[in-house]
Design brief:
The structure holds two protein chains of two kinds. In chain A, about 0% of the residues lie in helices and about 50% in strands. Chain A is an all-beta fold. In chain A, the strands form three sheets. In chain A, strands 2, 5, 6, 10, 11 and 12 form a six-stranded mixed beta sheet that branches. Chain A has a four-stranded antiparallel beta sheet with strand order 3-9-8-7, with no helix packed on it. In chain B, strands 2, 4, 5, 6, 9, 10 and 11 form a seven-stranded mixed beta sheet that branches. In chain B, strand 4 and strand 5 form a beta hairpin. Chain B is mainly beta. The chains are: A mainly beta, B mainly beta. At the A-B interface, strand 5, strand 6, strand 10 and strand 11 of A face strand 5 and strand 10 of B.
Chain lengths: ~110, ~110
């Protein structure tokens, strides 16, 4: 069965510092991988996705993620965090012919001044 | 124009009542979903529909009944509401079952008192 692990429940980063959020997945075939962001009281917005090809994918708001098959990871990065990036971040996995997304438990990002 | 819209955004009701949440997408997608986000922010699939046909029912109590009058709408009716039904319910859509990218609505926060 598919599963996603986000080992960090909370992360605090200073504004302007770099960010890396960890995501590990479990899936037998080639996965489709996603990062979504949820701002307080809001829905989920897709930041980026990986289907195939280049393992470094660029997303919106300056985010990028790298797919590493050998480590079953899809970590999200941003070189310089802004206060508006404070939110909950969810990693998710799907598959070709998929019928659902399986989400990780989320990582709450706090940005300090 | 909102791509996936849900109404209402907030719903407060008493135990035992019956309530409905409506969802509409204007993206021309074939597949629609209901996800539940619990108090710990964990997101889990409840139902998926493809072209008005039920594809997934993820062991949801039969007090929850989705209805898809056409492929642009997927409503969720809940009978005999219980305290444990309090959660945020998200509607989502994707182009079809082979496209894993899902677009989410803003969510409906249901509070059962």
């Amino acid at each position: 069965a598919q599963s996603v692990t986000q080992p960090d429940i909370h992360i605090t980063v200073s504004e302007g510092a770099s960010l890396e959020l960890r995501c590990n997945y479990s899936y037998g075939a080639t996965p489709y991988l996603f990062w979504y962001v949820q701002s307080p009281g809001q829905g989920l917005q897709l930041l980026l996705k990986y289907f195939s090809g280049d393992t470094l994918v660029q997303g919106i708001k300056g985010f990028e993620a790298e797919f590493k098959r050998s480590q079953s990871s899809f970590n999200l990065r941003k070189p310089s965090v802004h206060w508006s990036d404070a939110a909950e971040y969810f990693c998710a996995v799907g598959a070709m012919g998929f019928q659902k997304l399986v989400f990780g438990t989320g990582t709450r990002l706090l940005v300090s001044p | 124009d909102t791509a996936v819209s849900q109404t209402p955004k907030y719903l407060v009701t008493q135990m035992g009542n019956d309530k409905s949440i409506k969802c509409e997408q204007n993206l021309g997608h074939d597949t629609m979903y209901w996800y539940k986000q619990d108090s710990k922010k964990f997101l889990k699939i409840m139902f998926s529909y493809n072209n008005k046909e039920l594809i997934i029912n993820e062991t949801v109590p039969n007090r929850f009944s989705p209805k898809s009058p056409d492929k642009a709408h997927l409503n969720l009716h809940i009978n005999s509401l219980e305290l444990g039904d309090s959660a945020v319910y998200f509607c989502a859509s994707s182009q079809d079952l082979s496209r894993a990218e899902a677009f989410f609505g803003q969510g409906t926060r249901l509070t059962v008192v």
